[in-house]
């Protein structure tokens, strides 16, 4: 990054849900490199600590939130803490996802379907409810959902159905906030060399896939 771009988010508060791996990690690093203070939420403490070690060398800062997004009470505590510390969130990038194993639509396991809905739909809606007031308190509140066009393709029934419902939720939110904000964006990144994609496409040549850091920088550029 050039010196001109390294500080374009200086002083901004960027919440990244799903920050410990994949695109979320790439976004967190890119935002911190641009001077933002990143609120990094993920379940895995060790991966969050590794992220913090990397961000320590960047212009921005980081606050770690080890939390499962299906924990309503935990999300409420986090949003209250953000309000008390900063009074706002300038950007929210949502990359957290539960990727159910691929299977024919007629054979989706009930527990996998339930977990997909709980994480990808219900938790996403609860986050919209809780984060929206913080985004509205910013002079430039912007929420970005990492979308996936896999919904409706063969063997993606459980995962795809939950992502389609999530997309519908965000599209409704997007339509509702056009005049008064916050800005809501659905973003489809290029196919990346992530663990989720490896599960869905075993044996794929990963050398031709996009780098998560490069995709993270592209997404942060939208902010």
TrEMBL record:
Presence of keyword Metal-binding: no
Alphabetical keyword list: Oxidoreductase
UniProt keyword annotation of Oxidoreductase present: yes
GO CC entries: membrane
InterPro entries: NAD(P)-bd_dom_sf (IPR036291), SDR_fam (IPR002347)
Pfam families with a match to the protein in the record: adh_short
An annotated Gene Ontology molecular function: oxidoreductase activity
Entry's family note: Belongs to the short-chain dehydrogenases/reductases (SDR) family.
Name of the molecule in the record: SDR family NAD(P)-dependent oxidoreductase
Organism (species): Pontivivens nitratireducens
The organism's taxonomic lineage, starting at the top: Bacteria, Pseudomonadati, Pseudomonadota, Alphaproteobacteria, Rhodobacterales
């Amino acid at each position: 990054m050039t010196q001109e771009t390294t500080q374009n988010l200086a002083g901004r508060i960027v919440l990244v849900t799903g920050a410990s791996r994949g695109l979320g990690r790439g976004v967190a690093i890119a935002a911190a490199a641009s001077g933002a203070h990143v609120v990094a939420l993920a379940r895995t403490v060790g991966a969050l600590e590794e992220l913090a070690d990397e961000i320590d060398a960047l212009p921005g800062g980081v606050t770690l939130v080890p939390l499962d997004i299906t924990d309503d009470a935990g999300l409420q505590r986090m949003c209250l803490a953000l309000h008390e510390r900063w009074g706002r969130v300038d950007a929210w990038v949502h990359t957290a996802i539960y990727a159910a194993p691929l299977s024919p639509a007629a054979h989706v396991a009930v527990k996998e379907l339930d977990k997909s809905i709980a994480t990808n739909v219900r938790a996403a809606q609860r986050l919209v409810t809780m984060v929206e007031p913080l985004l509205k308190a910013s002079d430039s509140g912007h929420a970005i959902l990492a979308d996936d066009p896999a919904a409706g393709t063969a063997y993606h029934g459980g995962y795809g159905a939950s992502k389609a419902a999530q997309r519908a939720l965000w599209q409704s939110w997007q339509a509702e906030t056009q005049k008064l904000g916050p800005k809501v964006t659905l973003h489809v990144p290029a196919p990346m060399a992530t663990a989720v994609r490896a599960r869905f496409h075993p044996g794929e040549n990963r050398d031709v896939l996009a780098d998560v850091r490069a995709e993270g920088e592209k997404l942060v550029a939208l902010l």
